[in-house]
Structure prediction request, 318 residues.
Amino acid sequence: MRFLKKGEKEKPKPQPSSETKEHPDLQVISGSQISGRQPQQQRPPQQPQQQQQNITLPNIKYKIAVASGKGGVGKSTVATNLAISLANAGSTVGLLDADAYGPSIPTMMGIQEQPKTSPERKIIPLVRHDIKLMSIGFMVPEEQAMIWRGPMLHGAIRQLLGDVDWGELDYLIIDLPPGTGDVALSLTQALPLTGALIVTTPQDVALADVRRGVAMFERLGVPILGIIENMSYFLCPHCNEKTEIFRADGGKNTSERFGVAFLGQIPLDAEVCTAGDIGVPIVAGHPESPQSEAFGEVAKELEIVLDESGEEDELTIL
Ligand SMILES: Nc1ncnc2c1ncn2[C@@H]1O[C@H](COP(=O)(O)OP(=O)(O)OP(=O)(O)O)[C@@H](O)[C@H]1O
Ligand SMILES: [Mg+2]
Prediction:
């Protein structure tokens, strides 16, 4: 695997196996292959980021990023089930998988097809469980490692926001990759967000990462709407006894420390994991389960936070 040096010419590219897997403006480096139809040196010069027009998406009321300082804490699981909970409560919802390094929403939502393009050359999001969906994973072959040049990533994020026919939505939930990296930066440069949700597990090591996540959004001027504690406890399916496997209430305590809303706790449960693997999120497959109720409670709390904050652009930066 290697990057091209400035001015170096690319070798002819192997043809991608599937025409539909390639996108004209999405360039991904994998091994010695760079996908994309235009050689790098023929592409129009990139605008400096600060001169790029913000995408506003005025037909979407709330644009909310789901983030964490650390990987594997359940962002995608929370984003997916939260989106469905909001839709079940009567809202129109879109879910954007902006994890440019490991998109998991297509699997979690059970999607294998690719979106089509409208005559106006807008990408038409796929719909599952009443949610409009778009993922970087729809554009890049599954097995391809995703290694991005900064401007390419920035362009791809802008495209996922601005070139998709999202229509009118109450919510656009945006699933971010872990950490405090370049996707969050590109996203916040491209689109004014209503705010961010931070997902964490209860133990201390994860909470140190929450601090980093909160600090990053503060720096980017994005309000933190709340903290969601995932894998908080195990609910015995036989006797309903609650066991706190990790340390109890870490997310709650951290939210108090930061003066940020605590939106709720999601139990650790094999059903939640299985549901994600089979492509039918638990809130869609088992809406009456205690796990789904927990996601429903988080959705309600989020609505309360947003209601209390008034219009999205009036939220105070913490
Ligand atoms: N509450 C839960 N109970 C049981 N399993 C869960 C729960 N939440 C998430 N998982 C499982 O943990 C794994 C990681 O979850 P997920 O992919 O949502 O995390 P993530 O934070 O998005 O990860 P990444 O940082 O890699 O994007 C998945 O296998 C998922 O099914
Ligand atoms: Mg994820």
